Amino acid sequence: MALEIRSQPKAKADLTDIWLYIARDNEPAADRVLDRIQSVLATLAEQPDAGRLRLELHEGLRSFPIGNYIVFYTSDETALTVVRVLSRFRDISEDMMR
Questions:
Q1: Nearest-angstrom CA–CA distance, 98 and 93
Q2: CA distance linking residue 16 with residue 14, whole number of Å
Q3: Which end of the chain is less enclosed by CB atoms within 10 A, N or C?
Q4: pLDDT value at position 10?
Q5: Cα–Cα dist 41/57, whole Å
């Protein structure tokens, strides 16, 4: 059974920022990127251990690449919680996960 997908406020803001950035040039492409992210999140909700453990950033945190982005998430028995969705070109720090 798939876990419920929840998003923290920073993750929601990340997704909005991603869409706005891409949509400046191409709204359909922005829609496709967000659709792809949602599709991968649905898969992760069924297989939450698929992501790489990122203990150097936060206990229990996992990451999974999606194109030019990396989804950071945690999971428990009932939910997959999206913490951040960041560009894979950024330097990721522990502070970004708070």
A1: 10
A2: 5
A3: N
A4: 97
A5: 20
Write down the pTM of the prediction: 0.93
Contacts of 74 by beta carbon, 8 Å cutoff, 6+ apart: 58, 60, 61, 62, 80, 81, 83
pLDDT of residue 91: 83
Q: Token digits for 53?
A: 């453990």
| CB-neighbour burial class of residue 96 (10 A; exposed 0-12, middle 13-18, buried 19+) | middle
End-to-end Cα, the chain, rounded Å: 29
The answer to whether residues 74 and 61 touch, using CB atoms and an 8 Å cutoff, is yes
In the chain, what are the domains? 17-89 (3.30.2310.20)
